[in-house]
Structure formats: structure tokens, C-alpha cells
Amino acid sequence: MGGSAKGKVRERETVWAKFAVLTRFVALWWACALIAGLYVVHARHIPVDFVSFWAAGRLADLGNAAAAYDIAAHRDVEQTVLPIVGVLPFPYPPPFLLLMTLFAVPPFWVAFLLWVATTGGLYVFASSRITDPAFALAQPSVFANGIIGQNGFLTSGIFIAGFELMRRRPCAAGAILGALVIKPQLAVLLPVALLAGREWKAIAGGVVSASALLLLALLVLGPDAYRGFFEILPFYASSVSESRWQWTLIASIFGFARWLGLSQSVSLAIHCIIAALAALLAARAWWIKTKQRVAILAAATILVPPYILTYDALLLIVPLGYLLREDRSPVAIAVSWVFCLLPVLSYFELYSGPNTVPIAALACLWALRYEQARPAVQGAQAL
103-132: b or e for each residue (b if 16 or more CB lie within 10 Å)? Predict the structure, then answer.
């Protein structure tokens, strides 16, 4: 039996060694593809999402922050740097607009590279605390965020940095997590998890930092910026309800069901049921303080908002990194990676099926279920 056990150990080590080699190859591939892609985007002046951020920041820098939420005025600024077809509005709250005032100071292409490099660096630094940097860079959403200049690097970096600090400095950790006020749909489950986990210091830190950012944006940008933000929200709600979005882009259970042809009410009902179950799973993990509670929370976070996009799937590096670190479920890791890749391929019209990011999140939760009932040992890392 001893020889058999050793053989299984060696076989397992061989599998993970091959996996590590493959991870490095994929990371190198994404890096080369991203560099080439950025060159093509610049050479051909292909519209990217960052132009929406830059145009909003430029309007705020010119003293007209409210115009960042005026679709026509905002589009006029976008058109000065890239040929925008249709509309690419700015739907983020004023604290994020405040951040973009810094990146809108340089010319567009300089700002674009600075944004990708700065937020990408934050993501690499934060994720290297919980997993192999090569594995973090091998995620398909790395390319998605880098090529269009989206904010997944930033939000994932904030999430990881906050929870990595939770055990040692809970108040500071909460203050970092409070910065997710820049993208509230990714923070919906934070109060649920922290309350269930009785993380009172982290809750206090989060409330203070989120309130401070909201107040700072109010003082710097003025109340009209908040008025503009709330006035643009119905545009996005109607875009989703009236099917003006391509369902391949919407990375939620709701979007998946709509792609299958289900009605809006049925799709929303299915989404709400799965979102509620995911929230309960996360709350239970934090209540009994399981070792993988942060990984469960990250996967559940992807399943809760009905409006979430492909690049937000970068947050799944948390559960995937946990599974890799614990040498568990290589099949689940591979399946989740593929389901995150397919929607990225749709950017190049290489895939036209439903957005499979929520399936990847469900696969992560399924793989994490075995340890759900086992409490973490005293002093174990949260991530």
C-alpha cells in the first residue's frame, strides 16, 4: 500500500508540474498577444473602453464633471481621439470619476498605457500574494482588461489586497475594500460576508473609507456629478431590459438565460434564485469561518449582479488561486479557465455562444464545496 500511495503522490506531482509549465506558456502567450494587440489598437485607432474613462475625466478636469454623464457631451470628447460607433457612456459613480481626473491629464494614448500599466501592476502585485504570478497572468480576463483598458485589474487588486490584509490589520483591510465604492456591484456581498464573519473592525474601516471617498468626490466634483450619475442609470437599466446589449457580453446568469431565449421575467427569477443561493453559501462560509471563505465570496460575487461583464471575471483568480495553492481540483481549474476564455474569444468574433463566465463561477463553487463545513485552523490565512 505504501508503494501505491507514493505512486499516486508522484503522479499528482507530475500533473501539477505539467500544469505549472502550461501556465507559464499561457502567461507568456497572453503577454505577447497583449503587446501586439495594443499596437494594433493604436495603429488602427480601434475604439476601446478606456476612451470612456478618459473622456469623463477630461470633462471633469475642464470643470464640467456633470457632463461626464451627459451622453452627447461625453461622446463629443470621445470622438476627438477615437471614432466611436454608437455610444460608449460613462456609468461609474463620482469616486471613480475623481480617479479618472488624474489619468485624463496626459494625452489619450499616454494615459491609456499608464492606466493599463498602473492597474495591471496593482493586480500582479496583489495576486502574487495568493498565487503564482504566472497563473494570475494566464487568466483570459487579463487580456480582456489590458486590450480595452477596463477596470478589472483595479477592482480585483482592491479585493485581493483588502482580504489578504484582513487577518493582520482588519481595519486597514476594510478601508481598502471600501474603495470598491467605485464599482458597487462588486461590493454587494461584502456587508453580508463581513457581518456574518463578525469582522467589526473591517466593517468600520470600510464604512469610513467608502464615506470619505463619496464625500471627497462631492466636494471636488460637486453635487451635479452625483445628479448626473443617478440620471444615467435608467439608460443602462433600459438597455438591458430592452435587449440592446449583446447577451454574449453579459457575464451573469440573467444574461446566460436571456441568450437561451428565456423571457426577461423568467431569466431574472432564475438569476435571483442562484444569486440568493450563492449569497447564502458565502454567508455560511464566513459565519463558520471556513478556510476558503474568501474564495467562496469571490466566486459568489460574480454570480450576484445581473449586470456584469466579461472582464470582471478576473476576480475568479481568487478561487482559482486557492484551488491551485491547495493542489486541488485541476479539472475544475481547467474547466473554469476555458469557460472564462470563450467570452474573450467573442471579442474577435471567434465565439458567438452564451457568456460562460457564470458557469466558471459555479464550477469554482462546486470545487470549493468539500471544505465548506471544515472550519479554518486558528491563525490560518483568509486567502
Answer: bbeeebbebbeebbeebbebbeebbbbbbb
- Asked if 275 contacts 307 with a C-beta cutoff of 8 angstroms, the reply is no
Per the CB < 8 A criterion, the answer to whether 339 and 288 are in contact is no
Q: pLDDT per residue over 250-306, tens digit each? A: 999 999 999 999 999 999 999 999 999 999 999 999 999 999 999 999 999 999 999
Q: Alpha-carbon distance 135 to 320, whole Å?
A: 9
The top-scoring range by mean pLDDT among 228-242, 276-290, 344-358 is 276-290
Instruction: Measure the N-to-C terminal CA separation of the chain; round to a whole number of Å.
Output: 35
DSSP string across 93-156: -HHHHHHHHHHTSS-HHHHHHHHHHHHHHHHHHHHTTTS-HHHHHTSHHHHHHHHHT-SHHHHH
Q: How far is CA 90 from CA 41, 65, 72, 74, 252, in A?
A: 21, 11, 11, 8, 21
Asked if 191 contacts 200 with a C-beta cutoff of 8 angstroms, the reply is no
Q: Give me the phi and psi of 26, to 5 degrees please.
A: -65, -40
Rg (alpha carbons) of the chain, rounded to whole number: 21
Output the CA torsion sign for 8, 137, 179, 299. Answer: negative
Name residue, grid cell 457580453: 249
Distances (CA, A) of 27 to 101, 326, 362, 369: 32, 21, 24, 28
The 8-class DSSP code of residue 314 comes to: G
Q: How far apart are CA 196 and CA 29, in angstroms?
A: 41
Contact 260, 359 (CB under 8 A): no
Looking at residue 375, its pLDDT comes to 47
* Total residue length of the chain: 383
Report the candidate in 43, 99, 41, 28 with the shortest Cα–Cα distance to residue 68.
99
| DSSP 8-state symbol, 184 | G
